[in-house]
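Lab notebook, design round three. We kept the backbone fixed and only want residue identities now. Task for the bench partner: fill in a sequence for the structure below.
Input C-alpha cells:
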C-alpha cells in the first residue's frame, strides 16, 4: 500500500484527479488551481508541471492537446477552481 504524500511532484501525491498514459492532473496542495504534469523518467520518476489552470475550459483544452484520452472526471470539475477576489 502506498501512503499519499503532500509533495506535488511525488508519484504518491494525494491530490491526483486523473492520470493518462504520460500525463496527470492534480489539485495543487493549497486547492487553488489544477496542475497538468508529465512524468520525468517513466514509472517512479518525478512529475514536472506543464501548466497551472483555474478555468476548467482552459484545463480541458490543454489536456486534449496532449494526445491523452478524454477524462470524464475532468468534465465534472467546477468551472473555476479555488477562491477568487471577485466572488466567482
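Proposed sequence:
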Amino acid at each position: 500500500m502506498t501512503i499519499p504524500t503532500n509533495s506535488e511532484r511525488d508519484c504518491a501525491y494525494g491530490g491526483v484527479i486523473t492520470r493518462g498514459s504520460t500525463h496527470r492532473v492534480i489539485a495543487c496542495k493549497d486547492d487553488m488551481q489544477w496542475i497538468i504534469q508529465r512524468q520525468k523518467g517513466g514509472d517512479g520518476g518525478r512529475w514536472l508541471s506543464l501548466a497551472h489552470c483555474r478555468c476548467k475550459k482552459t484545463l480541458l483544452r490543454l489536456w486534449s492537446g496532449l494526445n491523452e484520452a478524454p477524462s470524464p472526471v475532468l468534465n465534472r470539475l467546477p468551472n473555476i477552481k479555488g477562491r477568487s477576489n471577485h466572488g466567482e
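Keep this in mind before ordering anything: The mean pLDDT is 89.
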